[in-house]
Amino acid sequence: MANRGGTTSSTTGNAVSGQVAGSVVQAGSIGSVHLHEAVPVVVVPRQLPPATRGFAGRRFEVDHLGRWLDDDGSLCVVISGAGGVGKTTLALRWLHDVRDSFPDGQLYLDLDAFSSTGPVRSEEALECFLLALGVAADRVPPDLAGRTALFRSITAELSLVVLLDNATSAAQVRPLLPASPTCAAVVTSRWRLVGLGMEGARFLELEPMETDASLELLAKAVGETRLSDERGAARELTTLCGGLPLALSVVAARLSAHPRRSLSREAGDLRAEQDRFPGLELGADVSVEAVLDLSYRELTSGQAAVYRTCALHPGPEFGTEVVTDALGESSTTALAALVEANLLVEVDEHRFRYHDLLRLHALRKAEKETLAGERRELSSTMVRWYLDTLVAADALLRPTRRRVGPRFEAPADRTGLFGSQREALRWFDVERANLRQACVLSVDLGLDDLAWQFCEAMWSGFLHTRHYDDWFACHDVGVAASVRSVNRAAEAQLRLQLSFAFSELKRFDEASAQGTAALKIVEESGDRGTAAAVLNQLAGIAQAGGDLATALSLLHRVREIRQEVGTPRALAFCGRRIGQVLADQGHYPEAERELVAAVDAMTRLGDQVQQAWSLVALGKTYLRWGRAEQAAETLRPALEIMRLMGTPYYEAEVLTALGEVAVALGDLPAARRHYSGALERYVQVEEPKAIDLRARLDAVTEVPSQVARDSRT
């Protein structure tokens, strides 16, 4: 198949996101200067997990996949079969062999057909794919139809491959299929998913491996010499394992760990183990059950405890830290032993997950051998570890914000996990699925006070990552938990956070409803501080809707409250918001007074970051006022402050504003220089805004500077 990359077609649009408050000038063209905001430039994802070592057999299937790809030029194939038969192993081996045929990259997602919390929804999967393709989090559409359309638009001219593992249904898969004729999609499932035939899918049903292929797999693990010495026992092992690669790999790991153990003894032990379960109705999985029980009996008591406990973990993957918190430092060696025994998969350094059959087996062992009260305590310990670590991350991300939850009173020390804001955000993003499921599990455990604190502590992370599906799902749980707990302050805080999320998605009716409900609570309780925060949010909704008079009136109420019960910093922040609304109204002299006062106040308070943001707001006001030179003079010290702070993201924000000023001045070389500097810093911190900025940088065209100057008059 010929390698073919793709490009996306240009569109024109406007969007503002991130730390900027108030208004900015946006235009498709200014005189002869044209700024085109395109469909996001696609990055090249490389998401395929490593291919399994010791792959054996399946030559017929590999040949079929290759022929289908050669014949069709594109491919949608469903690999189906029983659990443990090697569907994912085959898919990964083949895709790694042909990955050079897909220069635009690979997407991978485990759809969790057998997760305790249910399969991944199509809209959740699409969010993951869109983010991987470089779409900024705040540009991901909120619904399935919008996400499907955007995914198809982006992939329409690309050449990439998608691996959808453990799919549940054709309906789950259908929106995740790329649109390009030069793409491939490989789906693994225990069901045939014949409904995908409408999409032209090919179907490959895996049977257990033949004896020769099973012997080949064993030989790669234990050595050909050892196998040939006991060829009869080796054949019996393949029969006892039912030709299932998962069972064979566990047996092979056990034999490798015991080089003096004979294959005859291993076959005898396994035969006896299977005889213990004559009534077990697991169908094709019966061989796996017996193999796993035999391996489980060889674990030390500590290793067995770790195996059982990890099955209670909320979420699909887990790190060493949460296990050691529950079971002690010795569990790290047990985790390594479980990986060696092929009872756990190490997906990254110090990060693990189960094969779905292994997790089910471990959970059964936990239910049989660990008392219900102990299981509950272990689950609660893991939930508390996630909450306390989340609280520590939130405190690092926004150290000055007011909190309601009691666990914020003495945040845990997590410097071993993250020592900077960037590391805290990285941890939040990696653990996002676990945090969501820990929030839900806390309710199942009857720990409502923890559930709503999860939501409060996720606030800073969500502000940065904008994962709205998780934001809404967790807050639905948290608000209900706060109501059951009769904690009105917590309910108000969570409704305020929900209001902000809705307003960011321009769902202003819902934002207003949540904000109004929060305001009613805090007015009844007399919580003036939170009332000011809610009024500030309602002012933002009014401002976004163009009702600037209401926004200004609400902000004046905020100022009155802040003058009574607020801090100088809160007052200065309110002044900045008022200045931005005044600028929206075109009252530039009044806006200037408010913003200059905010700059001065933040300077006196020593809050350099807020001083810089106030300077940015003032600089943008000067730009709209037609005073571009003064805007540049105002933004330069903001840039110096951000550089001293050593925060690339903040520096990039100011450089972007300076680029806009340079465009207005007609100094396009300077605009390119500022945009390039901002782009470099966005890339450094893996900020999705880099995609839009790259398009803006590419789209600025050379024109005589006087033409751009004239366009402002």
Number of helical regions = 32
Helix content: 55-70%
What does the main sheet amount to? 5 strands, parallel
The average pLDDT is 86
Distance between the termini: 55 Å
- CA radius of gyration: 29 Å
Specify the structural class: mainly alpha
| Annotated CATH topology of the domain at 1-39 and 600-713 | Serine Threonine Protein Phosphatase 5, Tetratricopeptide repeat
Number of DSSP E strands: 10
CATH superfamily of the domain at 1-39 and 600-713: Tetratricopeptide repeat domain
Query: What best-fitting shape do the alpha-carbon axes yield?
Result: globular
Query: What share of residues are in beta strands?
Result: 5-15%
- Uncertain stretches: 1-42, 277-285, 702-713
CATH class of the domain at 1-39 and 600-713: Mainly Alpha
Strand order in space, largest sheet: 4-5-6-3-7
CATH architecture field of the domain at 1-39 and 600-713: Alpha Horseshoe
Pfam families: TPR_12, TPR_4
Protein name: Tetratricopeptide repeat protein
Organism: Umezawaea endophytica
GO molecular function: ADP binding; identical protein binding
Report on this model:
- Pfam families: TPR_12, TPR_4.
- It comes from Umezawaea endophytica.
- One of its GO terms (molecular function) is ADP binding.
- With 713 residues, the chain is mainly alpha-helical.
- Among the domains are: 1-39 and 600-713, Serine Threonine Protein Phosphatase 5, Tetratricopeptide repeat (Alpha Horseshoe), CATH 1.25.40.10; 59-205, P-loop containing nucleotide triphosphate hydrolases (Rossmann fold), CATH 3.40.50; 211-297, no CATH class; 301-370, Arc Repressor Mutant, subunit A, CATH 1.10.10.
- 61% of the residues lie in helices and 5% in strands.
- Strands 4-5-6-3-7 form a five-stranded parallel β-sheet, sandwiched between helices. A three-stranded antiparallel β-sheet has the order 8-10-9.
- A hairpin with a 2-residue loop joins β9 and β10 (351-353).
- The longest helix is centred in the middle third of the chain and has 26 residues, at 372-397.
